[in-house]
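Ticket 4471: requesting a sanity check on a complex prediction with flavin-adenine dinucleotide. Repro inputs:
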Amino acid sequence: MLRVAVVGSGPSGVYTAQALVQQSLVPDVRVDVLDRLPCPYGLVRYGVAPDHEKIKSLQNTLRAVLEDERIGFAGNVEVGARGLTPAGLLRLYHAVVYCVGAARDRRLGLPGEDLPGSFSATDFVSWYSAHPDAAGSGFTLGARSAVVIGVGNVAVDVTRILARGAAELRPTDVPHEALGALAGSRVREVHMVGRRGPSQAKFTTKELRELATLPDASVGVEPTDLALDPGYADPSGLPAVGRRNVDVVRGWAEAGGDAARARARSIRLRFFL
Ligand SMILES: Cc1cc2nc3c(=O)[nH]c(=O)nc-3n(C[C@H](O)[C@H](O)[C@H](O)COP(=O)(O)OP(=O)(O)OC[C@H]3O[C@@H](n4cnc5c(N)ncnc54)[C@H](O)[C@@H]3O)c2cc1C
Ligand SMILES: NC(=O)c1ccc[n+]([C@@H]2O[C@H](COP(=O)([O-])OP(=O)(O)OC[C@H]3O[C@@H](n4cnc5c(N)ncnc54)[C@H](OP(=O)(O)O)[C@@H]3O)[C@@H](O)[C@H]2O)c1
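Returned structure tokens:
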């Protein structure tokens, strides 16, 4: 029998375990999936936004894999300086596969980054996802205006959660404490800021478009920012996702900012800042 440890129970760890028991070169493989957290599924459980129920339901698929009798799951097992060592694991298993994700923040390296009122998306997402690491932290959302730095899908998630009304989040699995804080939120404007243009932004079109579907929020862009992006003026040379994103942003620019005054909250996309 070949015994393998997979460290990390996010999608990469669970699918690695599945691939190991499904392959046919080695007939008898047993896999233990280990995670430092008590519960499995990594960011599918503790990072995917609560209002993305369909993606969150991937947990059911991952659970079906962990229920295979050749695969075991052990939570509360940290591998590293504070727990089991890699050498210790190799005494117990023939092989170890590390699927530990990329959990740390990327620092901006700017003075003021740690001033009160400035947070990493990791902390904010962990808070509204009830990540065990966020236990005891809290956000009061007393400011009227919030700036989200970055134009990737996590920035879109954070912007959307700040701009959604608590009523829309109530049916989701957002934790009670975060729901209370979001219900009392005074945030009325969310500015999502990219250092490059809309044609190079990292968000995907489906996620970008969703911002305009929030019932209580309007979306606006600054025409002067867009004029700086050659890919906006001529999208023909862009990859497909860039072209689609530019189309969405163009639609918002052409619709103008009138809707902004009619809704409870506004989302402003800014570029080249
Ligand atoms: C905020 C956010 C939202 C996202 N939303 C989406 C989405 O809607 N749709 C989508 O397709 N993708 C989304 N993604 C991307 C997706 O979540 C990741 O690509 C995916 O989860 C990566 O899987 P992974 O298994 O590599 O890592 P992870 O999911 O991070 O899992 C790693 C696991 O390893 C464990 N671990 C770490 N260190 C140790 C250790 N030393 N010992 C033991 N265990 C350890 C962790 O506890 C964790 O359970 C999102 C990402 C983020 C950050
Ligand atoms: N499908 C979903 O709903 C969903 C939701 C969340 C996450 N995800 C996935 O999870 C992964 C991680 O997403 P992510 O949003 O964290 O990362 P990402 O896609 O790499 O986006 C990071 C953003 O931050 C910006 N940035 C980084 N350093 C900066 C700096 N110093 N100053 C200003 N801006 C800076 C980047 O700009 P530059 O491009 O200029 O570097 C980029 O716009 C991605 O694969 C994403 O698609 C998916």
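Notes from triage: The longest strand covers residues 2-7. Leaving this open until the requester confirms.
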